[in-house]
Amino acid sequence: MNWSTVFAILIGFLGLDILIIFHELGHFFAARACGIRVQRLAFGLGPAIVKWQHGETEFRINIIPFGGATTMCGQDDLKRALQKKQKRIEDCEDGSIYAATPWHRIITYLSGPLANILFAVICFIIILLMPVLHVDMNPEIRLTADVPEYASLPCAAKDAGLESGDWIYSVGGKGVQSWEELEQELKICSDQAYVFIVTRRGLFTVSPVDGKFGLLPAETFTETVTPGKKFFQTLGPAFTEVGIQISTFSDAITGIFLGRNKVGETLGGSLSASEHVGAITRNSFSISFNTGIRVALYLLASVSISLGIANMLPITALDGGLILISVAEIIAGHTLHPKTYVVLQIAGLATVLILIPVLRIFL
């Protein structure tokens, strides 16, 4: 494994960790706002390498830089209810999640995915604020007659008086500003008997031979910078892009359950982007710093939206499943039986543990 690969892996982990941190902070701040006490906020997995206490919450940075968890007060209430064989979780301590109203719990669970959506909005705003660097190949030419491997071929441009280093302004009366535009116009005019070409040195009449002019690019480039949008001009496009991606990913997920879409084709792009954020970003930085930042932000925004939507799936180990439980409690008018919570938690965790390897097989 070379250093370039290691660097790409580190960038990928860092990007995904940022998304998870935003997700967990969404839960943390929402819980605090709803009066739910957060016992522990952990970033990463495994034993802690750094931890500190602030107020009622222990903050931890764990040794494995992936994942995270927001542990809320209430586990002791559940254990006590199970030990006493209660039908409801009663006598909750202050700040317990089971003492909070179902609506407060819904807000707390929903805030993680919403934080991911907010992160994506911020990424798109930054992208739109950034100036855009355009690199165009100039319409400067080399004659094939001046290139040894092509010197034996006919060169209509040389016969007409053109020289290597000429900068072409127009072909057949149509202006060109880049080699791409020049190449397109030459192709359009290739079947004509003669073509007027204007350069810095004047007007030339070129008669293509077998549809060829004998021109190659000089491979010089011009860089132009388009200023970024002003802040308030970015809000509409940023929210629009987020809305489009949410709709697209949601429709794709729905299509899996309805049988319209294949699992591999639907999730392959998102998972591939998640796993290769580092490599794609590294390659983009090799083009330019501006391009690298824009590509990295776009990838992170897209993966963040996918993470937020995926967490809304109706699985009890995910936010979507926990929200459904809270909705059920609103309809029932009381909390669920303590054993039901345990069964749902185990079932949700088992579903996720089974689902991950199954998806890997499909993908």
For the largest beta-sheet, the strand count, sense and barrel status come to:
4 strands, antiparallel
Order of helices and strands: HEEHHEEHEEHEEEEHHHHHH
Average per-residue pLDDT, rounded, comes to 82
Number of strands: 10
- Low-pLDDT stretches are 263-272
Into which percent range does the helicity of residues fall?
40-55%
What's the arrangement of secondary structure elements?
Blueprint: H1 3-33, E1 38-54, E2 57-72, H2 75-83, H3 102-129, E3 132-137, E4 141-143, H4 156-159, E5 168-171, E6 174-175, H5 179-188, E7 195-199, E8 202-206, E9 215-217, E10 221-226, H6 231-258, H7 263-275, H8 277-287, H9 289-310, H10 319-332, H11 338-362
Antiparallel strand pairs: 1-2, 3-10, 4-9, 5-6, 5-7, 7-8
Note the main attributes of this structure.
363 residues; alpha+beta; Pdz3 Domain; 2 domains; four-stranded antiparallel beta sheet; two-stranded antiparallel sheet; 54% helix; elongated
Give a summary of the structure in a few sentences.
With 363 residues, this protein is α+β, with helices and mostly antiparallel strands.
Kindly describe this structure:
With 363 residues, the chain is an alpha+beta fold. It folds into 2 domains: 3-37 and 73-131 and 227-362, no CATH class; 135-225, Roll (Pdz3 Domain), CATH 2.30.42. The chain has 11 helices and 10 strands. It has helices spanning 3-33, 75-83, 102-129, 156-159, 179-188, 231-258, 263-275, 277-287, 289-310, 319-332, 338-362; strands at residues 38-54, 57-72, 132-137, 141-143, 168-171, 174-175, 195-199, 202-206, 215-217, 221-226. A hairpin with a 2-residue loop joins β1 (38-54) and β2. α1 packs across α8 (277-287), α3 (102-129) packs antiparallel against α10 and α7 packs across α9 (289-310). 30% of the residues are buried.
